[in-house]
Amino acid sequence: MINNIKPDPQEERRIWRFDVEGVRQMDDVVIREVPLTIYLNGQEFVTLLYTPEMADMLAVGFLRSEGLVKDFGDITSLRFDGERGFIFVETKNGGLTEKLYGKRTITSGCGKGTVFFSVLDALKNKPVESGLSITYEQVLGLVRQLQENAVLFQATGGIHSAALCHPDGVVYTCEDIGRHNAVDKIIGLCLKNSVSLEDKVLVTSGRISSEILIKTAKLGIPVLLSRAAPTTLSVELADTLGVTLIGFARGRRFNVYTHPERVQINEVIGGNEGEDN
């Protein structure tokens, strides 16, 4: 069902490097950004700008994030045309497309993102309930693992990464130019492989916006973790929706903004608190 054409997510370009020693020409690696148009039940639905990897999982995860499918069994057909950048998805409930026709967006998933649902829709969800706990050292370890697994970022410096984790290790890592896209690829993998989410942690490299928080809460993931900052709305939503929100996880420190009861201090906290790398 899936076309095997897989464009390289990065390519070499000739650049001019300026530094204290002068100017020189050299080859550098640049991340690719290409459009992916999702056709849902025969109608053009949305165009995402993404890094050309895992187009099928991005499409599935995006549809799950928007509430258009609940599990992988809701999808009856999935076909990717790699030459044109089209992916064709057929679902059991084809009538949803009629209701959403015209809400087409072109985005990389940064800024406002691709989210069609509203904050009020999210507040209708039941708060996340989970007995998950995570220790101080596990939080820092997951951030380190995310950085180590971010192969495209290490090569290009121009991409976001996200990881689904147990407290003691990474289950999946995905990368994309859009932080929302990276999360949706993770969601697609979870649906395809029937991975439970109520005992997991979502780790992201980017800013924690309300859209990322809503995606997390809708899936029932109890802990959202990032090296970067949250927004005020994401903090308010996390508090209401039962998500433990952790930001600025760098070096030997991090901030817990909501539901700190899931974070356990059972080690001696030491190290250089000024270290932010």
From TrEMBL:
Q: Name one GO cellular component term.
A: cytoplasm
* Keyword terms of this UniProt record: Cytoplasm, Molybdenum cofactor biosynthesis
A GO BP term here is: Mo-molybdopterin cofactor biosynthetic process
| Main localization, broad class | cytoplasm
Q: In which compartments does the protein localize?
A: Cytoplasm
GO molecular function terms listed in the Swiss-Prot or TrEMBL record: sulfur carrier activity; sulfurtransferase activity
Has keyword Cytoplasm?
Answer: yes
* Residues reported in the UniProt entry to bind Mo-bis(molybdopterin guanine dinucleotide): 248-253
A Pfam family cross-referenced in the UniProt record is FdhD-NarQ
Gene3D superfamilies to which the protein is assigned, alphabetical: 3.10.20.10, Cytidine Deaminase, domain 2 (3.40.140.10)
InterPro entries cross-referenced by the UniProt entry: Cytidine_deaminase-like, FdhD
> Which positions are catalytic residues?
110 (cysteine persulfide intermediate)
PANTHER family, alphabetized:
FORMATE DEHYDROGENASE, SULFUR CARRIER PROTEIN FDHD
What family does the database annotate? Belongs to the FdhD family.
- Purpose: Required for formate dehydrogenase (FDH) activity. Acts as a sulfur carrier protein that transfers sulfur from IscS to the molybdenum cofactor prior to its insertion into FDH.
Matching NCBIfam families = fdhD_narQ
Cross-referenced HAMAP family: FdhD
Protein name listed in UniProt: Sulfur carrier protein FdhD
Organism of derivation: Dethiobacter alkaliphilus AHT 1
The record's gene field reads fdhD
